[in-house]
Description:
mainly beta, three-stranded antiparallel β-sheet
Amino acid sequence: MSFQRIWRLKDILLDLVGIRCKDCGYTCYPPKAACPKCSSRNIERIALGSVGKIVSYTVVNVPIEGFENMSPLVIALVETSNGKVLTQLTNVKPEEVRLGMEVEATIRRSAMTLDGYVPYIVKFKPKES
C-alpha cells in the first residue's frame, strides 16, 4: 500500500479494530479469524480506540536484524477503551516513558523488509495536550 493511500485511509487505520470472542470474552488485536484463546469462530469486530495509557513497557537495546537503526526500540502494552495493544512507541525517548502515560495511535515508517519494501504501520506516540 502506498504512503499516499495510507494517508488517505489514516483515520480508518487509526481507529484500531480488534475482535472479541462471544464465547470466552477474550479481546485480540490485530483481528484474527478465530479466538486465539479458545479457537472459537464466534467472534465480533470491535473498535479498540486510538487513545490509551501505557500499562507496561520495555526498551530493546539490542534489536533484531533489520531494526538496528531504530535502536533503542520502546515496546509498550497500551490499554485503550476496549482492549490492549502491543505496539512500538515513537516520538519519545526511553527515559521519558512512564506507566500511565497517555498515548495515541499514529502512522509511522517501519524497518525495510528483506525484499526492499518500506511499510508504514500503526505505532503510538505521546498524546498531544
